């Protein structure tokens, strides 16, 4: 049976407990299971969480003859965007995944990122979904949807007192 060599290198890892640096509101009550590192703390719940879907920030602009939707979709390529328009609303969904797997002399770099956005908006008036047009520039999606019955934009000058 081969003997194990004793390494002179220190194999112990330095571990810092984050909960020691955080203010704890539940320790005075004597519930260690609810502390940040306890069995009911955030670390325990992370194993059951679903990946987060971010609600895309969006603007709905009424120009009178059409609606313009500007939605933030950073890092999501146009091929991964799903846009559905019906006569009363729009649904925008997108998903991006990036994997880095580098191995060079002296180091290994592995990283995975995933993001998903979703947004649904209702149009105040009926639109023509077949004539919708979309483009992405610098992480901002712009969708132009013409109205079925264009309305005249009226303006009124308001005096500030």
Overview of the molecule:
There is one protein chain. The chain is mainly beta and 161 residues long. The protein has a domain at 54-146: Sandwich (Immunoglobulin-like), CATH 2.60.40. Helices cover 3% and strands 40% of the residues. The chain is built from one helix and eight strands; from the N terminus they run αββββββββ. The protein has one helix spanning 42-46; strands spanning 54-55, 58-62, 66-72, 81-86, 89-104, 107-122, 133-137, 140-146. The strands form two sheets. It has a four-stranded mixed β-sheet with strand order 1-6-5-4, with no helix packed on it. 11% of the residues are buried. Residues 10-24 have low confidence and may be disordered.
Quick gist of this model?
The protein has one helix spanning 42-46, and strands at 54-55, 58-62, 66-72, 81-86, 89-104, 107-122, 133-137, 140-146.
Q: Secondary-structure blueprint of this entry?
A:
Elements: H1 42-46, E1 54-55, E2 58-62, E3 66-72, E4 81-86, E5 89-104, E6 107-122, E7 133-137, E8 140-146
CATH fold name of the domain at 54-146, please? Immunoglobulin-like
H/E element sequence: HEEEEEEEE
* Rg calc: 27 Å
What proportion strand?
Answer: 35-45%
**The CATH class of the domain at 54-146:** Mainly Beta
- Overall, the morphology is elongated
Overall CATH architecture of the domain at 54-146: Sandwich
Q: Uncertain runs with pLDDT below 50, 5 residues or more?
A: 10-24
Largest sheet properties: 4 strands, mixed
| Whole-number mean pLDDT | 78
User: Roughly how many Å apart are the termini?
Assistant: 95 Å
Tally the helices.
1
């Amino acid at each position: 049976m081969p003997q194990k060599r004793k390494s002179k290198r220190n194999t112990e890892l330095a571990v810092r407990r984050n909960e020691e640096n955080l203010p704890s509101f539940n320790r005075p009550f004597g519930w260690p299971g609810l502390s940040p590192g306890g069995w009911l703390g955030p670390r325990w719940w992370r194993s059951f969480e679903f990946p987060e879907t971010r609600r895309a920030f969006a603007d709905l602009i009424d120009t009178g003859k059409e609606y313009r939707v500007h939605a933030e979709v950073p890092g999501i390529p146009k091929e991964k965007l799903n846009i559905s328009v019906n006569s009363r609303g729009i649904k925008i969904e997108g998903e991006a995944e990036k994997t880095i797997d580098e191995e060079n002399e002296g180091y290994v770099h592995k990283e995975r990122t995933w993001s998903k956005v979703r947004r649904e908006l209702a149009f105040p008036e009926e639109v023509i979904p077949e004539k919708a047009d979309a483009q992405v520039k610098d992480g901002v999606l712009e969708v132009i949807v013409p109205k079925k019955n264009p309305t005249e934009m009226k303006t009124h000058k308001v005096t500030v007192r």
